[in-house]
Structure formats: C-alpha cells, structure tokens
Amino acid sequence: MISNILIPTDYSEASFNALETAIGIAKRNNASLQLLHIDESAFIPEESYTIKNASQIGHAIADNIKQRHGVETTVIFKDGYIGPTIARMAFDLKPDLIVMGAYGASGHRDFFIGSNSYYTIKHASCPVLIVPEGKRWLDFHQVLFPLRPTLGAFKKYQFISDLVIQIYPGCNFNLMGISIDRKEHDVKQVTEIANELKASWKEAIQYEVSYSYSKNIAEEVLDKADKSKADLVVVSSTVDVANKQFFIGPFSQRIINHARVPVLCIFKSAEY
Q: I need a labelling partner for 176 at 20 to 30 A (CA). Which of 59, 95, 105, 195 fits?
C-alpha cells in the first residue's frame, strides 16, 4: 500500500507536473505527500541559484494541496547536492514511492533526463516514478510491463504489478515477454507468469501478452510503447541480463532516457 510519497521539487514546470501526478496517486491511496526542496547553491554556486522565499512558496503549495485535495502535505527544506540528498532523505523517510520530473530548472540534463533524476533512480531505496514535462499525467490506462523469465520472477513481478495497480487501479497491462534467444522455454515461462499474475489480481484487470525476440530490447520496448499508446512503462532490473539491486543496465538506461511517457523505475530488490 502506498501511504507516503516523496516529491523533490525545485518549483519548475517539470516538478509541478510531477506533483500533479503525485496528488492523484495520493488521493487514490489516502496517502500523504512530502515536498522536498533542496538548496545546493552553497555547494556549487557557479551552476545553481537560490529561489527567494522558497520556504513561503513551499508552505503555500502544501496549504493549497490540503485545501483543494484534502491530502496531508508537509514540506522539507535541505541544503546539499540534489541527487545524494534525495537518496539520503528517501533512506531516512522511507517513502513508498518517489515522484519527480524528468528534469527541472536545477537539474543537469543527461540525454533526456536530468542527472539528479538518474541519480535518484539508481540510489533511492524505493521505486521512482519519472514524469516527463509538457503534458499532465493524472491517470494511467495502458501499462507496458516488460517480462524476462528469471529466478523467482513471479514474486518480483507480483510486487511490481501490485504497485502499478495502487498507482492506478483501472489500468490495463500489456505484458511484453522478452526472449533474446527465442527459447520456447522462455515463452512458456512468460505465459505462466502472466497467468499467475492474472489469477492474483483481485481487480478486474485487463491484460494481453506479446513477445519480443530482438536483441535490442530497449528499442523494442520503446517501439511497443508508441504503437500500443502506453501511458506508463515499467522498468526493473529484470529488463537487463544482470539482475542486481540498484543495477541500471544499458537497456534500462535507454528506455528511461528516451521514453515519451512516465516511467516507473523499480530497482530495489529488498521488497521482492
């Protein structure tokens, strides 16, 4: 159950867009929000800036959320490097989910997401939902969920699917089986995982299963996301060959960097 959501914000358009998504998730789960604003000007003054009246702005936003949406919202202010501070606060506060913009006014862009977003994905102790700017993402109807048969795969995918359903209960899943070597065993395992997930879902979830046999997994996933009009892509360590905690391999990196829709990044294996 999602009960506490952490939202790093620099008061940019990108972070406000992510905040709108977080509010929707919080309302559906009766969860609380924690707005985190970080001032790194004392650490890298030549590349950053300080927002005047940051405290007043943050508390005004929190009060507005409480009044308009009835969502309990607190504000936290910290000094430090942005990425490491987000990761440290996630460890201390133990949120169930971090929601943040792909990049913001204080972020440095690496490919198509900011370095702070990337650092958070790699080091945070909980799942991270990256929300691109330019469009409001208040609900999710079509989820692209890549599946690779691995040891203990069902338990991992059970956790992921439960989390996605908490984010938006009415979503439909497109379960995309990945088999680079075209092994019949892989296809069979993916089908079994899909059927087990279907049996475990209490809600009337719709799902379909497709398969990818390409060695370029990232391009296949991105192409499938476009063609299926997915509005959420799930990326976990199982997308890449090495299945390690906090491991972001080349396929995952490319999907995260180039997806045109929100990406739910799940690399923490402890919950599995």
A: 95
